[in-house]
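Re: weekly structure request thread

Next one in the queue (309 aa):
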Amino acid sequence: MPRFNSAMSGTLLIFLIIPFCFILSGCKSTESIDVFFTSRENNVCKILKGKVVVYAIFVDTKKTKPWTQYDIYSTLDSIDKSMDWVMQRAVQNCVNLNISVVYHKNQRGTIPIYKEFTKKTLSSSLFRKQLSAGIRDIYRWADYIAAEAGKSLPKDTTSIIRTVNKMNDRERLLARLRDIYKTDNVALMYFVNNYYSDEISVTFDATSSDNPEFSIVSFKNPSVIAHEFLHLFGAWDLYITPFDSHKETIRRKKQAMELFPDEIMAFAYRNIDSLNISQFTRYTIGWDNALEPKYSELILGKKLKPVKY
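Done, posted below.
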């Protein structure tokens, strides 16, 4: 089936950088078109149900504040709070969800991994003259750290495994983690210490079928952590981003922000206890099988009709 790029997809997250894709099941031009969201039921983090593991890796760089023991444990507290919030919302929606938080440390008990960004900071490394080059730099950065983190994991001793898992990138790390924790849903999240800095948090490849998705989080605000975590499972940004240049896109997002005044995907920097998960986001992460028509038309327009799963 053909692929379609939506002008309604902005986000600072390679959601924002690469427009959302839909898979269409074709009809006549006068009829509505059924669409599958490629962010849903895709890649490593498919549907936000069942057993989920958050694998947190703390990273030191030259330009970020060094991770102190206090910083690490306070951030872990924020991660726990954000995941508790998500699980509470799952209970309210009758969804079976159990999230465990695991963090990397090596055999000596050392937690942060040191790896410089190519251009000193996350944002300057990513937003270069050629964005594709910036993305490749971030991939290399993330793969190096994944390879280092993988060195501390127990080796796979299963007798049926004949091919050695060479721990050299994110995909290999995730494959080993999925085997260790016996779940397909492993959310890989990198944390850099950018407190009190003007920096971004970003999620990559949530719509990809070729590269495993991951997040880089710059702050320990629980709502920001939950926001990026939900992106990994297919949630869309519902706020106006710098990449939203189409007037119709901006108009619809303004309407979405008015319609969902407590939506975490629209207001990520508020107190997490004041936020909620809208029906639109519940659909994108697999908690609802159908999107209510009024929200479909608001977000996608009259021509596109999200499928019922």
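The chain has eight helices and ten strands. The first strand starts at residue 3 and ends at 5.
Next request, please.
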